[in-house]
Amino acid sequence: AAFVTRLLRAAGGVGEEQLRCFRECLQEAMREHYKHHWFPLVPSKGSGYRCIRINHKMDPLIGKAAGMIGLSHERLFQLLPSELTLWVDPFEVSYRIGEDGSICVLYESPQPGGKAAKQLESRTSCKEEWRIGRSSPSKSYNMMTVSS
User: Fold this and answer.
1) Assigned domain for 75 exists
2) What's the CATH number where 85 sits?
3) 78 inside domain
4) What's the DSSP call for residue 80?
5) Count of domains in the chain?
6) Within a domain: residue 126?
7) pLDDT, averaged across the chain
8) For a tag on the chain, would you pick the N or C end, based on fewer CB atoms within 10 A?
9) Domain range holding 40?
10) How far is residue 8's CA from residue 25's CA, in Å, rounded to a whole number?
11) Integer CA distances (angstroms), 135 to 57, 80, 101, in order
12) In 10 A of CB 136, how many CB atoms?
């Protein structure tokens, strides 16, 4: 939820109070949606159900949270990447911008009783990819950073 909120913040035009409300609404929508589809002992079980996807169609969880702050699907398509996939699993959250983009890990924690999480070699390149907004060749998502 924080990642999608950061994307909206970076795009501009949404107030901080709206962003806070959006993040809270999205967290609650995800919590409710995943309630019976969260399996820490088998983290990959139900992973398709927990996938958040924007690809010519707005993900219903993001759409619901945006509706709570008055953002239409049309406005969301202007503010968010046209192709975004988030995989929300126990112990790991990953994303991809564009169909041909790299899969980047946003969050990773060791599984209880398992080996410690290994260091991610591509983390820096994924952060850079998010900043420049890499997408598949047929579509682009550009992000401009303005500082004062």
Assistant:
1) yes
2) 3.90.640.90
3) yes
4) S
5) 1
6) no
7) 82
8) C
9) 1-108
10) 14
11) 16, 12, 6
12) 15
